[in-house]
Write a structure and sequence with these properties.
The structure holds two protein chains of two kinds.
Chain A (H helix, E strand, L loop, with lengths): L1 H23 L8 H23 L7 H17 L8 H33 L6 H16 L2 H12 L3 H25 L3 H9 L4 H39 L4 H10 L4 H32 L1
Helix pairs in contact in A: 3-11, 4-7, 4-9, 5-7, 6-7, 6-9, 7-9, 8-9, 9-10, 9-11, 10-11
Chain B lengths: L1 H30 L3 H18 L4 H5 L1 H33 L7 H16 L2 H12 L3 H37 L4 H39 L2 H11 L3 H29 L1
Helix pairs in contact in B: 4-5, 4-7, 4-8, 4-9, 4-10, 5-7, 6-7, 6-8, 7-8, 8-9, 8-10, 9-10
Protein backbone atom coordinates (compact mmCIF):
# COMPACT_ATOMS: atom_id res chain seq x y z
CA UNK A 1 0.00 0.00 0.00
CA UNK A 2 2.63 2.43 1.05
CA UNK A 3 4.83 1.45 -1.82
CA UNK A 4 1.96 1.83 -4.23
CA UNK A 5 1.31 5.35 -3.01
CA UNK A 6 4.87 6.38 -3.49
CA UNK A 7 4.92 5.01 -6.98
CA UNK A 8 1.85 7.04 -7.80
CA UNK A 9 3.32 10.23 -6.43
CA UNK A 10 6.57 9.69 -8.23
CA UNK A 11 4.83 9.12 -11.53
CA UNK A 12 2.62 12.16 -10.93
CA UNK A 13 5.71 14.17 -10.14
CA UNK A 14 7.47 13.07 -13.23
CA UNK A 15 4.43 13.88 -15.35
CA UNK A 16 4.25 17.30 -13.75
CA UNK A 17 7.87 17.99 -14.33
CA UNK A 18 7.50 16.78 -17.89
CA UNK A 19 4.70 19.28 -18.44
CA UNK A 20 6.74 22.02 -16.85
CA UNK A 21 9.67 21.17 -19.03
CA UNK A 22 7.56 21.21 -22.13
CA UNK A 23 6.62 24.82 -21.52
CA UNK A 24 10.24 25.91 -21.27
CA UNK A 25 12.12 23.79 -23.77
CA UNK A 26 11.42 21.84 -26.96
CA UNK A 27 12.59 24.46 -29.31
CA UNK A 28 12.56 22.18 -32.27
CA UNK A 29 13.28 25.08 -34.55
CA UNK A 30 15.69 27.35 -32.75
CA UNK A 31 15.23 30.99 -33.68
CA UNK A 32 18.47 32.08 -35.25
CA UNK A 33 19.72 34.37 -37.98
CA UNK A 34 19.44 31.73 -40.69
CA UNK A 35 15.77 30.98 -40.09
CA UNK A 36 15.05 34.71 -39.76
CA UNK A 37 16.63 35.36 -43.15
CA UNK A 38 14.76 32.42 -44.69
CA UNK A 39 11.45 33.76 -43.42
CA UNK A 40 12.26 37.30 -44.50
CA UNK A 41 13.21 36.09 -47.98
CA UNK A 42 10.01 34.10 -48.39
CA UNK A 43 7.82 36.92 -47.08
CA UNK A 44 9.43 39.52 -49.32
CA UNK A 45 9.16 37.25 -52.38
CA UNK A 46 5.46 36.68 -51.70
CA UNK A 47 4.83 40.39 -51.11
CA UNK A 48 6.60 41.38 -54.33
CA UNK A 49 4.59 38.76 -56.21
CA UNK A 50 1.27 40.00 -54.85
CA UNK A 51 2.26 43.58 -55.61
CA UNK A 52 3.19 42.57 -59.16
CA UNK A 53 -0.17 40.97 -59.78
CA UNK A 54 -1.97 44.03 -58.43
CA UNK A 55 0.08 46.45 -60.48
CA UNK A 56 -0.21 44.51 -63.75
CA UNK A 57 -1.74 46.48 -66.57
CA UNK A 58 -4.69 44.28 -67.45
CA UNK A 59 -6.46 47.01 -69.39
CA UNK A 60 -6.37 45.66 -72.93
CA UNK A 61 -5.98 42.02 -72.05
CA UNK A 62 -8.46 39.41 -71.00
CA UNK A 63 -6.54 37.01 -68.80
CA UNK A 64 -9.05 34.22 -69.07
CA UNK A 65 -9.46 34.40 -72.82
CA UNK A 66 -5.70 34.62 -73.18
CA UNK A 67 -5.10 31.46 -71.19
CA UNK A 68 -7.75 29.57 -73.13
CA UNK A 69 -6.38 30.70 -76.47
CA UNK A 70 -2.88 29.74 -75.31
CA UNK A 71 -4.12 26.23 -74.69
CA UNK A 72 -5.73 26.16 -78.11
CA UNK A 73 -2.58 27.50 -79.72
CA UNK A 74 -0.39 24.97 -77.96
CA UNK A 75 -2.79 22.25 -79.08
CA UNK A 76 -2.60 23.39 -82.71
CA UNK A 77 1.17 23.68 -82.50
CA UNK A 78 1.83 20.25 -81.16
CA UNK A 79 -0.94 18.25 -82.75
CA UNK A 80 -1.01 19.73 -86.25
CA UNK A 81 2.58 20.63 -87.08
CA UNK A 82 3.43 21.01 -90.76
CA UNK A 83 6.27 22.11 -93.03
CA UNK A 84 5.53 25.05 -95.26
CA UNK A 85 8.49 27.35 -95.77
CA UNK A 86 11.17 24.71 -95.42
CA UNK A 87 11.56 20.95 -95.57
CA UNK A 88 12.61 18.38 -93.02
CA UNK A 89 16.17 18.36 -94.33
CA UNK A 90 16.49 22.14 -94.21
CA UNK A 91 15.17 22.17 -90.66
CA UNK A 92 17.72 19.54 -89.70
CA UNK A 93 20.47 21.58 -91.34
CA UNK A 94 19.32 24.69 -89.47
CA UNK A 95 19.43 22.82 -86.17
CA UNK A 96 22.98 21.76 -87.08
CA UNK A 97 23.88 25.41 -87.55
CA UNK A 98 22.49 26.20 -84.12
CA UNK A 99 24.40 23.26 -82.63
CA UNK A 100 27.53 24.48 -84.41
CA UNK A 101 27.15 27.95 -82.92
CA UNK A 102 26.70 26.42 -79.48
CA UNK A 103 29.74 24.19 -79.97
CA UNK A 104 32.04 26.95 -81.20
CA UNK A 105 31.10 29.32 -78.37
CA UNK A 106 31.48 26.60 -75.76
CA UNK A 107 34.88 25.59 -77.14
CA UNK A 108 36.27 29.12 -77.39
CA UNK A 109 34.72 30.04 -74.05
CA UNK A 110 36.13 26.94 -72.34
CA UNK A 111 39.65 27.54 -73.70
CA UNK A 112 39.75 31.17 -72.61
CA UNK A 113 38.05 30.43 -69.30
CA UNK A 114 40.42 27.56 -68.51
CA UNK A 115 43.41 29.82 -68.98
CA UNK A 116 41.96 32.76 -67.04
CA UNK A 117 40.45 30.41 -64.46
CA UNK A 118 43.94 29.56 -63.17
CA UNK A 119 44.57 33.21 -62.49
CA UNK A 120 41.14 33.69 -60.98
CA UNK A 121 41.56 30.83 -58.50
CA UNK A 122 42.73 32.25 -55.18
CA UNK A 123 45.08 29.37 -54.39
CA UNK A 124 46.88 29.49 -57.74
CA UNK A 125 47.41 33.20 -58.16
CA UNK A 126 47.68 36.27 -55.99
CA UNK A 127 44.78 37.87 -54.16
CA UNK A 128 44.59 41.14 -56.13
CA UNK A 129 44.79 39.36 -59.50
CA UNK A 130 42.08 36.92 -58.51
CA UNK A 131 39.83 39.67 -57.17
CA UNK A 132 40.34 41.78 -60.30
CA UNK A 133 39.48 38.93 -62.68
CA UNK A 134 36.48 37.84 -60.62
CA UNK A 135 35.10 41.38 -60.45
CA UNK A 136 35.59 41.91 -64.16
CA UNK A 137 33.93 38.60 -64.92
CA UNK A 138 30.96 39.41 -62.69
CA UNK A 139 30.33 42.52 -64.78
CA UNK A 140 30.63 40.54 -68.04
CA UNK A 141 28.21 37.96 -66.72
CA UNK A 142 25.65 40.52 -65.67
CA UNK A 143 25.17 41.81 -69.22
CA UNK A 144 22.62 39.51 -70.87
CA UNK A 145 23.99 37.46 -73.77
CA UNK A 146 21.63 39.00 -76.28
CA UNK A 147 22.98 42.45 -75.49
CA UNK A 148 26.55 41.25 -76.02
CA UNK A 149 25.56 39.85 -79.40
CA UNK A 150 23.75 43.01 -80.42
CA UNK A 151 26.64 45.21 -79.26
CA UNK A 152 29.13 43.16 -81.29
CA UNK A 153 26.73 43.15 -84.22
CA UNK A 154 27.27 46.89 -84.60
CA UNK A 155 30.96 46.32 -85.30
CA UNK A 156 30.85 42.91 -87.02
CA UNK A 157 27.43 43.04 -88.66
CA UNK A 158 24.53 40.77 -87.83
CA UNK A 159 25.41 37.13 -88.33
CA UNK A 160 27.34 34.22 -86.97
CA UNK A 161 30.50 36.23 -86.22
CA UNK A 162 28.74 38.63 -83.86
CA UNK A 163 26.75 35.79 -82.35
CA UNK A 164 29.78 33.63 -81.63
CA UNK A 165 31.79 36.48 -80.13
CA UNK A 166 28.89 37.78 -78.07
CA UNK A 167 27.95 34.37 -76.75
CA UNK A 168 31.60 33.53 -76.07
CA UNK A 169 31.83 36.58 -73.83
CA UNK A 170 29.05 35.36 -71.64
CA UNK A 171 30.32 31.77 -71.68
CA UNK A 172 33.75 32.93 -70.54
CA UNK A 173 32.19 34.86 -67.70
CA UNK A 174 30.20 31.88 -66.58
CA UNK A 175 32.91 29.25 -66.95
CA UNK A 176 35.65 31.28 -65.24
CA UNK A 177 33.47 31.38 -62.16
CA UNK A 178 32.71 27.66 -62.32
CA UNK A 179 36.29 26.59 -63.09
CA UNK A 180 38.01 28.82 -60.56
CA UNK A 181 35.67 27.65 -57.82
CA UNK A 182 36.46 24.02 -58.57
CA UNK A 183 40.21 24.83 -58.63
CA UNK A 184 39.85 26.44 -55.23
CA UNK A 185 38.48 23.20 -53.82
CA UNK A 186 41.82 21.55 -54.46
CA UNK A 187 43.60 20.44 -51.31
CA UNK A 188 46.17 23.04 -50.29
CA UNK A 189 48.56 20.25 -49.26
CA UNK A 190 48.88 18.94 -52.81
CA UNK A 191 50.09 22.28 -54.12
CA UNK A 192 52.41 22.66 -51.15
CA UNK A 193 53.88 19.21 -51.68
CA UNK A 194 54.54 19.90 -55.35
CA UNK A 195 56.04 23.29 -54.55
CA UNK A 196 58.30 21.68 -51.94
CA UNK A 197 59.53 19.20 -54.50
CA UNK A 198 60.51 22.09 -56.73
CA UNK A 199 57.72 21.96 -59.29
CA UNK A 200 57.08 25.18 -61.14
CA UNK A 201 53.68 26.80 -61.67
CA UNK A 202 52.93 25.08 -64.96
CA UNK A 203 53.87 21.69 -63.57
CA UNK A 204 51.52 22.24 -60.64
CA UNK A 205 48.75 23.12 -63.09
CA UNK A 206 49.24 20.12 -65.33
CA UNK A 207 50.10 17.51 -62.73
CA UNK A 208 47.77 18.44 -59.89
CA UNK A 209 45.14 21.03 -60.73
CA UNK A 210 43.84 19.77 -64.07
CA UNK A 211 43.76 16.05 -63.26
CA UNK A 212 42.00 16.53 -59.95
CA UNK A 213 39.35 18.94 -61.24
CA UNK A 214 38.84 17.28 -64.63
CA UNK A 215 35.44 15.90 -63.58
CA UNK A 216 34.18 19.34 -62.63
CA UNK A 217 35.60 20.92 -65.76
CA UNK A 218 33.89 18.42 -68.04
CA UNK A 219 30.52 18.52 -66.33
CA UNK A 220 30.46 22.34 -66.17
CA UNK A 221 31.52 22.62 -69.78
CA UNK A 222 28.86 20.21 -70.91
CA UNK A 223 26.24 22.01 -68.84
CA UNK A 224 27.26 25.22 -70.56
CA UNK A 225 26.99 23.50 -73.94
CA UNK A 226 23.37 22.68 -73.15
CA UNK A 227 22.74 26.26 -72.09
CA UNK A 228 24.50 27.57 -75.19
CA UNK A 229 22.27 25.49 -77.43
CA UNK A 230 19.21 27.20 -75.95
CA UNK A 231 20.96 30.56 -76.14
CA UNK A 232 21.89 29.94 -79.78
CA UNK A 233 18.23 29.29 -80.60
CA UNK A 234 17.31 32.52 -78.87
CA UNK A 235 20.08 34.46 -80.62
CA UNK A 236 18.80 33.23 -83.96
CA UNK A 237 15.43 34.68 -83.07
CA UNK A 238 16.50 37.92 -81.41
CA UNK A 239 19.82 38.83 -82.99
CA UNK A 240 19.79 37.35 -86.49
CA UNK A 241 22.39 34.71 -85.73
CA UNK A 242 20.85 32.23 -88.15
CA UNK A 243 19.97 28.63 -87.45
CA UNK A 244 16.67 27.22 -86.31
CA UNK A 245 15.96 30.19 -84.05
CA UNK A 246 15.74 32.50 -87.04
CA UNK A 247 13.24 30.18 -88.73
CA UNK A 248 11.18 30.19 -85.58
CA UNK A 249 11.25 33.96 -85.50
CA UNK A 250 10.13 34.14 -89.13
CA UNK A 251 7.41 31.54 -88.63
CA UNK A 252 5.91 33.29 -85.64
CA UNK A 253 6.67 36.94 -86.31
CA UNK A 254 6.18 37.13 -90.09
CA UNK A 255 4.10 34.21 -91.32
CA UNK A 256 2.06 33.85 -88.11
CA UNK A 257 2.18 30.13 -88.78
CA UNK A 258 1.60 28.31 -85.51
CA UNK A 259 1.91 24.88 -87.07
CA UNK A 260 5.36 25.65 -88.37
CA UNK A 261 6.38 26.99 -84.96
CA UNK A 262 5.22 23.60 -83.68
CA UNK A 263 7.54 21.73 -86.03
CA UNK A 264 10.47 23.88 -85.00
CA UNK A 265 9.66 23.45 -81.34
CA UNK A 266 9.68 19.69 -81.82
CA UNK A 267 13.13 19.90 -83.41
CA UNK A 268 14.55 22.05 -80.64
CA UNK A 269 12.91 19.91 -77.98
CA UNK A 270 14.30 16.69 -79.43
CA UNK A 271 17.85 18.02 -79.55
CA UNK A 272 17.66 19.65 -76.13
CA UNK A 273 16.40 16.46 -74.51
CA UNK A 274 19.05 14.41 -76.32
CA UNK A 275 21.74 16.77 -75.00
CA UNK A 276 20.33 16.49 -71.49
CA UNK A 277 20.37 12.70 -71.65
CA UNK A 278 23.97 12.70 -72.88
CA UNK A 279 24.93 15.11 -70.12
CA UNK A 280 23.37 12.93 -67.45
CA UNK A 281 25.14 9.91 -68.86
CA UNK A 282 28.50 11.68 -69.00
CA UNK A 283 28.04 12.84 -65.41
CA UNK A 284 27.22 9.38 -64.06
CA UNK A 285 30.12 7.89 -66.04
CA UNK A 286 32.50 10.44 -64.54
CA UNK A 287 31.15 9.81 -61.05
CA UNK A 288 31.62 6.06 -61.28
CA UNK A 289 35.08 6.30 -62.83
CA UNK A 290 36.25 8.89 -60.30
CA UNK B 1 51.91 -3.02 -67.83
CA UNK B 2 52.26 0.53 -66.57
CA UNK B 3 53.62 1.69 -69.88
CA UNK B 4 50.47 0.29 -71.47
CA UNK B 5 48.30 2.49 -69.28
CA UNK B 6 50.17 5.61 -70.33
CA UNK B 7 50.09 4.67 -73.99
CA UNK B 8 46.38 4.02 -73.78
CA UNK B 9 45.84 7.31 -71.98
CA UNK B 10 47.80 9.19 -74.62
CA UNK B 11 45.83 7.49 -77.38
CA UNK B 12 42.57 8.38 -75.67
CA UNK B 13 43.46 12.05 -75.37
CA UNK B 14 44.74 12.06 -78.95
CA UNK B 15 41.45 10.65 -80.26
CA UNK B 16 39.50 13.08 -78.09
CA UNK B 17 41.45 16.04 -79.49
CA UNK B 18 41.04 14.76 -83.05
CA UNK B 19 37.26 14.52 -82.65
CA UNK B 20 37.22 17.98 -81.11
CA UNK B 21 39.16 19.40 -84.05
CA UNK B 22 36.94 17.73 -86.65
CA UNK B 23 33.75 18.93 -84.95
CA UNK B 24 35.22 22.43 -84.69
CA UNK B 25 36.07 22.44 -88.37
CA UNK B 26 32.62 21.20 -89.35
CA UNK B 27 30.99 23.79 -87.09
CA UNK B 28 33.04 26.59 -88.59
CA UNK B 29 32.05 25.54 -92.11
CA UNK B 30 28.40 24.99 -91.33
CA UNK B 31 27.86 28.23 -89.42
CA UNK B 32 29.92 30.22 -91.92
CA UNK B 33 31.94 31.58 -89.04
CA UNK B 34 34.93 33.53 -90.21
CA UNK B 35 37.79 33.29 -87.74
CA UNK B 36 39.78 36.16 -89.24
CA UNK B 37 36.75 38.39 -89.33
CA UNK B 38 35.91 37.44 -85.79
CA UNK B 39 39.35 38.34 -84.50
CA UNK B 40 39.44 41.52 -86.54
CA UNK B 41 36.06 42.63 -85.26
CA UNK B 42 37.15 42.46 -81.62
CA UNK B 43 39.34 45.57 -81.59
CA UNK B 44 36.85 47.24 -83.89
CA UNK B 45 34.07 46.57 -81.43
CA UNK B 46 36.16 47.81 -78.54
CA UNK B 47 37.06 50.98 -80.37
CA UNK B 48 33.44 51.55 -81.33
CA UNK B 49 32.40 50.91 -77.73
CA UNK B 50 34.73 53.52 -76.35
CA UNK B 51 33.75 56.15 -78.87
CA UNK B 52 29.98 55.58 -79.00
CA UNK B 53 28.76 53.31 -76.27
CA UNK B 54 28.57 55.56 -73.21
CA UNK B 55 25.64 57.53 -71.83
CA UNK B 56 25.53 61.24 -72.58
CA UNK B 57 23.35 64.03 -71.18
CA UNK B 58 20.54 63.35 -73.63
CA UNK B 59 20.46 59.76 -72.43
CA UNK B 60 20.14 60.80 -68.80
CA UNK B 61 16.87 62.59 -69.54
CA UNK B 62 15.46 59.17 -70.52
CA UNK B 63 16.50 57.67 -67.18
CA UNK B 64 13.06 57.87 -65.44
CA UNK B 65 11.46 56.07 -68.35
CA UNK B 66 14.15 53.38 -68.33
CA UNK B 67 13.86 52.89 -64.58
CA UNK B 68 10.12 52.48 -64.95
CA UNK B 69 10.64 49.73 -67.51
CA UNK B 70 13.28 48.15 -65.30
CA UNK B 71 10.86 48.09 -62.37
CA UNK B 72 8.35 46.23 -64.52
CA UNK B 73 10.98 43.69 -65.59
CA UNK B 74 12.27 43.03 -62.07
CA UNK B 75 8.74 42.63 -60.67
CA UNK B 76 7.77 40.21 -63.42
CA UNK B 77 10.95 38.16 -62.95
CA UNK B 78 10.40 37.84 -59.20
CA UNK B 79 6.69 37.04 -59.54
CA UNK B 80 7.30 34.45 -62.26
CA UNK B 81 9.98 32.78 -60.14
CA UNK B 82 7.88 32.70 -56.98
CA UNK B 83 4.77 31.27 -58.61
CA UNK B 84 6.94 28.91 -60.65
CA UNK B 85 8.62 27.74 -57.44
CA UNK B 86 5.28 26.90 -55.81
CA UNK B 87 4.23 24.76 -58.75
CA UNK B 88 7.71 23.30 -59.04
CA UNK B 89 7.64 22.26 -55.39
CA UNK B 90 4.39 20.35 -55.86
CA UNK B 91 5.70 18.63 -58.98
CA UNK B 92 9.00 17.90 -57.28
CA UNK B 93 7.20 16.19 -54.40
CA UNK B 94 5.44 13.92 -56.86
CA UNK B 95 8.54 13.47 -58.97
CA UNK B 96 11.15 12.84 -56.31
CA UNK B 97 12.19 9.30 -55.60
CA UNK B 98 11.83 9.70 -51.82
CA UNK B 99 8.46 11.44 -51.66
CA UNK B 100 6.67 10.14 -54.73
CA UNK B 101 3.10 8.88 -54.33
CA UNK B 102 3.44 6.27 -57.03
CA UNK B 103 5.72 5.47 -59.93
CA UNK B 104 3.41 6.56 -62.73
CA UNK B 105 2.72 9.98 -61.25
CA UNK B 106 6.45 10.44 -60.69
CA UNK B 107 7.24 9.69 -64.33
CA UNK B 108 4.45 11.97 -65.51
CA UNK B 109 5.52 14.94 -63.42
CA UNK B 110 9.17 14.49 -64.37
CA UNK B 111 8.15 14.30 -68.01
CA UNK B 112 6.08 17.48 -67.83
CA UNK B 113 8.96 19.31 -66.18
CA UNK B 114 11.40 18.05 -68.83
CA UNK B 115 9.21 19.38 -71.63
CA UNK B 116 8.71 22.75 -69.97
CA UNK B 117 12.40 23.07 -69.26
CA UNK B 118 13.58 22.21 -72.72
CA UNK B 119 11.25 24.47 -74.65
CA UNK B 120 13.34 27.57 -74.51
CA UNK B 121 12.05 30.83 -73.07
CA UNK B 122 12.37 32.44 -76.49
CA UNK B 123 10.06 29.77 -77.95
CA UNK B 124 7.59 30.24 -75.12
CA UNK B 125 7.49 33.97 -75.60
CA UNK B 126 6.74 33.57 -79.30
CA UNK B 127 4.00 31.04 -78.64
CA UNK B 128 2.47 33.28 -75.99
CA UNK B 129 2.75 36.33 -78.21
CA UNK B 130 -0.10 34.88 -80.27
CA UNK B 131 -2.49 34.87 -77.33
CA UNK B 132 -1.44 37.74 -75.09
CA UNK B 133 -0.01 40.13 -77.62
CA UNK B 134 2.50 42.80 -76.69
CA UNK B 135 1.85 42.86 -72.96
CA UNK B 136 3.68 42.21 -69.75
CA UNK B 137 1.70 39.01 -69.30
CA UNK B 138 3.45 37.44 -72.30
CA UNK B 139 6.81 37.90 -70.63
CA UNK B 140 5.43 36.82 -67.31
CA UNK B 141 4.10 33.50 -68.60
CA UNK B 142 7.21 32.80 -70.67
CA UNK B 143 9.42 33.28 -67.61
CA UNK B 144 6.96 31.32 -65.47
CA UNK B 145 7.08 28.26 -67.72
CA UNK B 146 10.87 28.35 -67.92
CA UNK B 147 11.29 28.77 -64.15
CA UNK B 148 8.78 26.04 -63.45
CA UNK B 149 10.65 23.50 -65.57
CA UNK B 150 14.09 24.36 -64.24
CA UNK B 151 13.07 24.61 -60.59
CA UNK B 152 11.25 21.28 -60.70
CA UNK B 153 14.47 19.55 -61.74
CA UNK B 154 16.47 21.45 -59.12
CA UNK B 155 13.95 20.74 -56.35
CA UNK B 156 13.75 17.04 -57.20
CA UNK B 157 17.51 16.81 -56.88
CA UNK B 158 17.43 18.77 -53.62
CA UNK B 159 14.76 16.57 -52.07
CA UNK B 160 16.52 13.38 -53.13
CA UNK B 161 19.84 14.63 -51.85
CA UNK B 162 18.82 16.14 -48.54
CA UNK B 163 15.98 14.20 -47.09
CA UNK B 164 16.08 10.54 -48.09
CA UNK B 165 17.37 9.24 -44.74
CA UNK B 166 15.17 11.47 -42.59
CA UNK B 167 12.12 10.53 -44.64
CA UNK B 168 12.95 6.87 -44.09
CA UNK B 169 13.30 7.46 -40.35
CA UNK B 170 9.92 9.18 -40.15
CA UNK B 171 8.29 6.47 -42.24
CA UNK B 172 9.63 3.90 -39.78
CA UNK B 173 7.90 5.72 -36.91
CA UNK B 174 4.64 5.55 -38.83
CA UNK B 175 4.33 9.24 -39.67
CA UNK B 176 1.76 10.19 -42.32
CA UNK B 177 2.63 11.63 -45.74
CA UNK B 178 1.92 15.24 -44.82
CA UNK B 179 3.78 15.17 -41.55
CA UNK B 180 6.76 13.72 -43.37
CA UNK B 181 6.61 16.57 -45.88
CA UNK B 182 6.20 19.31 -43.29
CA UNK B 183 8.52 17.92 -40.63
CA UNK B 184 11.32 16.56 -42.75
CA UNK B 185 11.33 17.48 -46.42
CA UNK B 186 10.58 21.18 -46.13
CA UNK B 187 12.81 22.02 -43.12
CA UNK B 188 15.83 20.16 -44.47
CA UNK B 189 15.44 21.29 -48.06
CA UNK B 190 14.40 24.90 -47.68
CA UNK B 191 17.84 26.59 -47.59
CA UNK B 192 18.90 24.78 -50.76
CA UNK B 193 15.58 25.57 -52.44
CA UNK B 194 15.79 29.26 -51.58
CA UNK B 195 19.28 29.28 -53.02
CA UNK B 196 17.87 27.85 -56.27
CA UNK B 197 15.01 30.37 -56.27
CA UNK B 198 17.47 33.24 -55.90
CA UNK B 199 19.56 31.84 -58.74
CA UNK B 200 16.43 31.62 -60.87
CA UNK B 201 15.56 35.26 -60.18
CA UNK B 202 19.01 36.34 -61.39
CA UNK B 203 18.65 34.20 -64.50
CA UNK B 204 15.14 35.45 -65.12
CA UNK B 205 16.14 39.09 -65.08
CA UNK B 206 18.74 38.31 -67.73
CA UNK B 207 16.24 36.30 -69.78
CA UNK B 208 13.61 38.99 -69.29
CA UNK B 209 15.80 41.22 -71.43
CA UNK B 210 15.69 38.69 -74.23
CA UNK B 211 11.96 38.08 -73.82
CA UNK B 212 11.48 41.85 -73.83
CA UNK B 213 13.26 42.17 -77.16
CA UNK B 214 11.11 39.43 -78.66
CA UNK B 215 7.77 40.51 -77.22
CA UNK B 216 8.20 44.26 -76.91
CA UNK B 217 7.92 44.63 -73.15
CA UNK B 218 10.01 45.82 -70.24
CA UNK B 219 13.68 46.72 -70.25
CA UNK B 220 14.45 44.57 -73.28
CA UNK B 221 12.04 46.62 -75.35
CA UNK B 222 13.65 49.83 -74.09
CA UNK B 223 17.05 48.58 -75.24
CA UNK B 224 15.73 47.36 -78.56
CA UNK B 225 13.99 50.67 -79.20
CA UNK B 226 17.08 52.81 -78.61
CA UNK B 227 19.36 50.28 -80.32
CA UNK B 228 17.30 50.16 -83.49
CA UNK B 229 16.91 53.92 -83.64
CA UNK B 230 20.75 54.04 -83.45
CA UNK B 231 20.55 55.96 -80.18
CA UNK B 232 23.55 54.11 -78.76
CA UNK B 233 24.14 56.52 -75.90
CA UNK B 234 20.75 55.76 -74.37
CA UNK B 235 21.10 52.06 -75.19
CA UNK B 236 24.35 52.02 -73.22
CA UNK B 237 22.55 53.60 -70.28
CA UNK B 238 20.05 50.72 -70.41
CA UNK B 239 22.93 48.24 -70.31
CA UNK B 240 24.51 50.00 -67.34
CA UNK B 241 21.20 50.01 -65.47
CA UNK B 242 20.77 46.27 -66.13
CA UNK B 243 24.32 45.54 -64.96
CA UNK B 244 23.81 47.48 -61.73
CA UNK B 245 20.51 45.70 -61.06
CA UNK B 246 21.89 42.23 -61.64
CA UNK B 247 25.02 42.90 -59.57
CA UNK B 248 22.83 44.19 -56.72
CA UNK B 249 20.58 41.16 -56.82
CA UNK B 250 23.62 38.89 -57.00
CA UNK B 251 25.04 40.62 -53.95
CA UNK B 252 21.81 40.23 -51.98
CA UNK B 253 21.40 36.58 -52.89
CA UNK B 254 25.04 35.84 -52.07
CA UNK B 255 24.46 37.39 -48.67
CA UNK B 256 21.31 35.31 -48.10
CA UNK B 257 23.13 32.17 -49.24
CA UNK B 258 26.05 32.82 -46.90
CA UNK B 259 23.68 33.12 -43.93
CA UNK B 260 21.31 30.25 -44.62
CA UNK B 261 23.52 27.54 -46.11
Amino acid sequence: MGVDQSVKTVSADSINSFHLNEKKRIKVKPFNKASLIIQLTIISLVLVTIYTFISFDYSDINLFEGIISTFQNVKIMFLEPHFKHFSFVTALYQVMITLGLAFLTTLFGALIALFLGFFAARNLSSKPVSAAIKGFVAVIRSVPTVLWVLIFAVAAGLGSVAAVIGMTFHTVGYLIKAYSESFEELDEGVIEALKASGANWWQIIFQAVIPSSMTYIISWTFLRFEVNFAVAVAMGAAAGAGGIGFDMFMASGFYFDLREVGVITYFVLAFAIALELIATKVKTNLKTSA
Amino acid sequence: MQADVFVKKRWNSFIFLLILLVVTFVSIVITEFNMAKGLASLPKALQWGFTNFYPDEMALTKLPDILNKLRETVLISVAATTVGAIFAFLFALFGSRTTKVNGVLSKVSRGIATIFRNIDISAWSMILLFSFGQSALTGYFALFFGSFGFLTRAFIETIDEVSSSSVEALQATGAGYFSIIFQSVIPSGIPQMISWILFMIETNIRSATLVGILTGTGIGFAFDLYYKSLNYHTASLVVIVIVITILTIEYISNYVRRVIL
